[in-house]
Structure formats: structure tokens, C-alpha cells
Write the C-alpha cells for this entry.
Amino acid sequence: AIAYELVHSDPAHMLLMVVTKVMFLAMTEVQDSARLSLFPFSNGGRLNLIGKRFGQEREEIGSDEFGNPIFDIDDEEFKERILTAFDENSTAGAKNPYIANAKRAPGGRSLEDVLPFVINPNDPVEPIEPDDPAVEPAPVEPAPAEPAPVEPAPAEPIIGNPPNIGVALLFKEDSSDLRAPDLIKEEREKNIRSITAFLNSDNIKPLGDVLKVFEAAARLYSVKAKIRISSGVSAAVVLKDAQTSLRNYLESRRRCGFSVTKSGITAALFAGDKGRFNVEDVELSLPTKDIVCNDGQYPKLRKKMVNNIQLDDIDLTEWKESR
């Protein structure tokens, strides 16, 4: 037999290299396609197919500049709805069934968060928006002397049981929505009525639950901080990274019953340095104390007007004080 040794310049060698490369690319494409069919990695139309198997659908409302479809519910929120699909078939009573049924109710697509909780009889059912913790409360005038005791009138009979389950609703905020605030409020009140009627139906609500469905109250706050940056680095880059990290933290805390803490804000500003250790210190002026919310409240970043443009009230500057 005659031995034949391939060399790099041999056409057969080059042909085998091309065939190997094509097969590798084909296998990679198959693997990527299979990976996108798995729930944790799926998106777009593939995620819609998975959602249909669980009775979940979303509407296409347009397309981006690259021709990719845009849906009324983004991928992450749609995945959350798919995960709670089985809870829709369960009688509400636990938290997840109430959350799932509230989001699938008429008007539920406008919800960002839902928090069911047990109402304490000693607490008011309607949550009252507290004062901004960054502002010192006004002095309270001493109460006048109490008048002589008067015999109380007989109590009127209570019709029905008082609410024992509260369902706080947090609606999405769309910066591109230019409608008047009254129209937005009217639409939200209509959605609250629809969600209330849906949750109170006999095939969803346990007979022993008396619901109070309401819009969560906002606890407003502002953020003002100075960052001391190491010399020799770009202050603009460090400030931009710190602000991005801060916004991610604040956005993650925009949930019913969540709180925004001073230590969390400070940690986010340090984390924005991405391990480069260029942030030496943080001086936090606002908020002056933690924004602690109960189950019927959520932390909301205050807005400010700059050149007739509504922006988040975040004041982040470089600390140029001499050391």
C-alpha cells in the first residue's frame, strides 16, 4: 500500500477543514435552538409557545427597529405568570393564588405587583400615605382639654363581617403615557373594581375570606449623596456606574411591603464601582432614615421638574472636599 500524507496546501486537507467547520456550526446552531426551547432561556415567540401549554397568552402590540415583536407583557413578567399558572386553578387563600388570579382578572395586565396579607383588626384597613421621612414633621399644637364625658350612643349593628384579607395593588407606571392624571386615576379605579369583583367570585375566594382590595400607598423619598473618588480616575465614569447601580437597586425595591434602607443605597453606590475600588467613601444626605413600608405601601422615588422635563429626584455628585 502506498502511504499518503496530507499537507496544509493539499486541497483534500482544506476540504476536510471546511466540512468540519460547517458541521461544527450546524451542531452549535442545533444546540442553541434546543437551549432556547428550555423555559429558563426562552424568549419571544418560543416563550409564547411554552405559555400556551399553560394557558397563558400575551398580545403583540408592535415591533422594534429590527423587526422583533413587542408584546404587552415583557419576557420576565410573562415567565412569572407561567410559573403561577397552576395557582390560577387553585382556590385562593394562600398568597400565590390571590396574586395569580388578580393578574389574570380584567384590568390585571396593568399590575406591577400584588401583595395579599392578613389585616390586623387594630390597624386601619385603608393605608394612609405617611409624611416624607426626609422632612421633619411640623410641631403639633397641644390638644384642648377634653370635655366632660358624654354617654355613648348605642352602637349600630354591623352588616357583614369586617375585612380580614387585604390585597394591595401596585400599578405599572409608563413614562410615555401623556394622559391627564385624572384619566389615569379613573382607569385605575375601574381596574380595581374589576379585580375586586373577580377575586370575590365564589369559585375563587374562600367563603371565610372578606377582601379589601385597594391601591398601595406610595412612600415618597429622594436620594442625595456625594461620592469621594480616588485621584487619577475618571469621575464621570465612576459616577455613571454608581448611578446605574443605584437605579437598579431602587427599581428592585419598588414592591409592595418592601423597604429602601440607607445601608442598601450606600452599598449600591459602592457596588457600582464594579470591584475597582475607586469609590473611597459615600456621604448620604437623603433619605435621612430608612423608608420602611407596611404591607399596604411601597417605596416610590420622588420626581422633579428640570427644564419642563420630569426626572427622578436623584442628586449624585463628586465629593470634592479637601482631606
